[in-house]
Design a protein that fits this description.
Among the domains are: about 5-75, Integrase, N-terminal zinc-binding domain (Arc Repressor Mutant, subunit A); about 85-125 and about 215-235, Alpha-Beta Plaits, CATH 3.30.70.980. The chain has 9 helices and 10 strands. The protein has helices at about 5-20, 25-40, 45-60, 65-75, 105-120, 150-155, 180-190, 210-225, 240-250, and strands at about 85-90, 95-105, 125, 135-145, 160-165, 170-175, 195-205, 205-210, 230-235, 240. A hairpin with a 5-residue loop joins strand 1 and strand 2 (about 95-105). The two termini are about 25 Å apart.
Length: about 250
């Protein structure tokens, strides 16, 4: 992603706060349910489920909660009717925004997401109004204090990493979706542990938001969407110049 794109790092820092509030557990439970429903309840043969369980363990989600979510997904317990939906729209400044949703009631979720867009100056759009601007990719965030770009290249390029770049305090390592597992394994074998890793969507081009008020509104919209219990992932195609980020940080 060209330019200074703050959302991955903002979202990463925010995850620790969400975990304390229990929001992240709710989201991860849904991810486990859907993964188990789609590929079965054995994480050894269901890679998506394995990653979802690992994410849950990383934020100290209780074992009982994890097992209950797996059983809901496989149908051993009631309450596994969670479906995946993608909502798309535009934020202030023409920023394209895509939300990956997991919900047990789309009739409740849709108007709630629409209200979030409206509140922060955005507009919920029709299916595929912005999805074509994003590619499915694996994304790893590695603290810049823990390694170097050269070490990352040596560890991951042969495994399928496509791009490595420094963004703030982290290196971003991206790869094709089908190389996600191989790159993750390569990092582990090299003793490099990412602070976060996920299959996400990365924009093919970006919009620069230089106006401070517009940038602030975009970030607030992104944060409000990410705060929603049904939103698993939210991505957008914007960058903010360092001068505007400094002004936002200064209040």
């Amino acid at each position: 992603m060209a330019g200074h794109s703050p959302w991955a790092n903002i979202k990463h820092r925010k995850a620790a706060v969400d975990a304390k509030r229990g929001k992240l557990w709710t989201k991860l439970s849904k991810a486990i349910i859907v993964a188990a429903r789609m590929g079965g309840g054995d994480p050894e043969t269901n890679l998506r489920l394995r990653y979802a369980i690992n994410d849950a363990k990383a934020v100290s989600m209780p074992k009982d909660n994890i097992e209950r979510a797996v059983k809901r997904g496989t149908g051993e317990l009631e309450g596994g009717e969670v479906e995946e939906i993608v909502y798309e729209g535009y934020g202030p400044g023409g920023v394209a925004i895509l939300c990956e949703i997991m919900t047990d009631n789309r009739n409740r979720t849709a108007p709630e997401i629409r209200k979030v867009f409206d509140t922060w100056g955005g507009k919920l759009g029709a299916t595929n109004c912005v999805a074509w601007m994003f590619e499915r990719k694996g994304l790893f965030l590695v603290p810049a204090t823990k390694t170097t770009e050269e070490q990352l290249m040596e560890a991951t390029l042969d495994a399928g990493a496509e791009d490595i770049k420094l963004d703030g305090e982290h290196f971003q390592v991206t790869c094709a979706a089908d190389a996600f597992h191989a790159v993750g394994e390569a990092l582990t074998k090299s003793g490099i542990e990412p602070e976060s890793k996920q299959l996400t969507r990365i924009p093919s081009n970006v919009v620069q938001v230089a106006n401070v008020e517009t940038a602030r509104s975009v970030l607030k919209l992104m944060e409000a969407l990410d705060d929603h219990d049904d939103v698993q992932n939210v991505v957008a195609n914007f960058t903010i110049p360092d001068s505007a980020m400094a002004a936002i940080a200064a209040g």
